[in-house]
Design goal:
Shape of chain C: globular
Distance between the termini of chain B: 44 Å
Largest sheet of chain B: 5 strands, mixed
Helix content of chain C: under 10%
Strand order of the largest sheet of chain B: 2-11-6-3-4
Helix content of chain B: 10-25%
Structural class of chain B: alpha+beta
Strand content of chain B: 25-35%
Largest sheet of chain C: 12 strands, antiparallel, barrel
Number of strands of chain C: 12
Number of helices of chain C: 2
Order of helices and strands of chain C: HEEEEEEEEEEEHE
Number of helices of chain B: 4
Shape of chain B: globular
Oligomer: heterotrimer
Number of strands of chain B: 13
Structural class of chain C: mainly beta
Largest interface: A-C, 73 and 54 residues
Radius of gyration of chain B: 16 Å
Chains: A mainly beta, B alpha+beta, C mainly beta
Strand content of chain C: over 45%
Amino acid sequence: MKKSFLAGLAALLMPAFGLAGEYNLTVDRVQIDTGDFVKEGIGYNGESPGPVLRFKQGEEVTINVTNNLDEMTSIHWHGLILPYQQDGVPGISFPGIQAGETFTYRFPIQQAGTYWFHSHSGFQEPDGAYGAIAIEPEGREPFRYDREYVVQLTDKHPHSGDRIMRNLKMMPDYYNRQQQTVGEFFSDASEHGFMNTLKDRMAWGDMRMMKADVEDLQGFTALINGKGPDQNWTGIFEPGERIRLRFINSSAMTYFDIRIPGLNMTVVQADGNNVQPVNVDEFRIGVAETYDVIVRPRDEQAYTIFAESMGRSGFARATLAPEEGMEGVVPELREPARLTMADMAGMHGMDHSAMESKEQSDMAGMDHSSMAGMDHSGMLMSGNGASDPFYAEGSGIVPMAANGGKFLSYADLRAQNPLYEDREPTREIELKLTGNMERYTWSINGVKYEDADPIRLQYGERVRFKFVNETMMTHPMHLHGMWSILDVGADQWNPIKHTISVQPGTTVYMETEVDEPGQWAFHCHLSYHAAAGMFRKVIVEGGPDSTQAKTDAVAGNGGEA
Amino acid sequence: MNAAKFLVVATSMSMSAAAFGAGAHSGGHGGGSGEPGKASEVSRTINVEMHDNYYEPESIEVNPGETVRFVVVNKGNLVHEFNIGTPDMHEAHQEEMMMMVEHGVIQGGTLNHDMMEMDMGDGHSMKHDDPNSVLLEPGKSKEIVWKFSEQGNIEFACNVPGHYQAGMYGDVNFN
Amino acid sequence: MSRVRFMTLGLLSSLLLPTTVTAQEMMEDTTARKQALTTWGVQFEEFEYRYSDDDEELGVWNADIFYGTDELRFRWLTKGEYEIEEQAYESLENQLVAQTPISKFFDAKAGVRFDTPEGPDRTYAVLGLTGLAPQWFEVDASLYVSDEGDTSAEFDAEYELLLTNHLILSAALDATVAFSEDREIGLGKGLSSTETGLRLSYDLIDRAFSPYVGVVHERKYGDTADLAEAEGGSTEDWFAVVGARIAF
């Protein structure tokens, strides 16, 4: 460590050990007013979002959670490294918190950065049970700011989580109001020709896939810190100050593209871990991810924080201003994105599925004929021209900055300080992200959680996970309890995350140092995908005390045990 | 909700805030930050440590016209720069540094020295040999002798992309 | 290089020994998450008033109520035509079927059907196939064997054309073929009847309530038509319809 530096700051910083803090949270039924509608939901300490929990690295926290609901609840500390019994997943970490009970969480805060917490029971999280965590580091931050704000996004829907799940199961396109219409057919036909458009529609119709299938859930009001676009959450600044914005996406289903017109953003942290600073104009935040950015508004004016949903069906809006009540210009929503055949590329993999027989071969046949045919015409196939190595080549959902500037890619992320020594993984586990939009079933390797065996890892090994997205949706995969080291090809500088978005038709690798014993949840963080079965239990066998542990690392033969 | 919670991270915030206020109209006027100094005129030595991504110290005091020897050491894991200039000069230099990153001259913790020698056409190279700055790999150390101008809004800064914006700069305060 | 790999080399012999954290110490997931997700829904594809070209007035519904998991769903399919003036059910049909996926887009179903209109009743065994055909045609084919021993088949297809994302034109075709005659209920052998409908709906409240107007054409063929004529009934009707699609 930087001893000289620490010594220099000794007067400013409390000693790291010996710190202890006690916190109280109640889980309550609350009213959530989005400005568009008022809805009963679930919150903490009487409000949704709940309070911002401010911890200090090195602190031993005691958190008393009192369940005032008439049903079971739980709190999961998203991204925190802690003993598995404290992780808050009913049925995996602990039995849950029964109605009327108080459960006391106790764990040491081993890390710093921006995180969040949420219920891991039923659909309490989409119903409002979430809050933010900001952890001050033991040493100084590798960046400077004069003030900071949590900017926590969510996609509050007028329907309850249970109802949404049921509606999606009844009609998977229940909430999709951006489907292709007759009008779009004719506008496409005038642009690309009638036959090309017809061929395009036929190809998609043959697959029974929708180009418009970017967002399962529309009709929400996007909130920032609990405030709808009209309620306009406002953060105050003095011109010239540096502001740290802790963006947290606590949405059930919605990815956001975030920009602050007039301001450059410097991304300094992703998922709580410092990254080498990247200057961007806009970035996409996946469900459950966090990004910390530094902005420096120099002018005495209001700046709009504008977060468009990835499918462009809604937006969150907030304001940074020198004083309360000021408003910046609120941009228009951009045109909704359309998937392309490139985003469907992963679907070939479905041939493995036992259920597929004739239909599959039909589909494969189609892929090769009409798809290729359309490539030549170069029309509706192409994406928007942008490219990003973490999207399929020619994908229709590659984000572009509204001002034509820099849009953050996973490929830009580099760890500020590698957390682990870089080493060869002990083995690779392939996880195919699978599903069937028409049935609204979601699974891993074609198997839903209810039918799946746990993934068994050995303490001390370093596992390389290979995510192959065979669906047309983006899946934010979240491994509890251990870090997900995203492979961006930067070896020891690969960024350390807790949630990794896997875009349709792509393969993404992450590595995990298996350094926490116990059992953990591992799932897609889209609430209704997880509930539909895109979920696994991970068991870490062995432990630091086990002479066995490191030995067993070699025992696995890949795949799910 | 929890409104703004002011969090002081470093000691020199109020001073840097003052510097921002004056930042807009600096630059331009003759000499800006000063000029390369003569070793014989050095009045004192200031040690500057570069960390990821900040300086230690984060502000220095100089007398108008003083010649100072800076011993700059990179104690971080990343390549860093120590560059004396006005905010405008830094901003202009950041574009050059961006190019160096895009061309692979700066790669996280290493410098590609071969690339630095390359002629970029139109008389430019990516040598990074300006007298007001040093660019150092981790563990490396270098000296600069600098004669400060009489007055001005001067910062020392790291213009590796993102570093300045993240707060890797220090203030030069004139006595 | 890798410390782990180095250490493992010498200790291969102990590979199969138990580890410190055993399965017994860790809990089993018995929460709802580990159970198959059960869900339910109610959909009235048709819930309408029909007015025919010879002044016949009908109240008509066609609904699907389901409960179950991805693997097994129980469905109650109910449809009826109520003659308003005569206060009698021209047709009344209830099916109870169990349904399970057999391919990516298709389910097989089996169950019973009870027809209890004005006039003779029938009970059928049902075997069917339902799902989504290429180009977004929702299709349903059923084979019926009645308690009288007669067999028949019914084929349904529906297509939705999105004029906008709320204004939807849907076309439905329903055809019945009998493989043997059942005079008592006026069913002749061969293609017996078709019902074709065109409805323009507007999603007023989500997809829960979508009022529509439309036209329906009913036609009887062959022996079935002859039987109807002998009874003094019509063999071809045009209806103007107004109603709503309902889902909850």
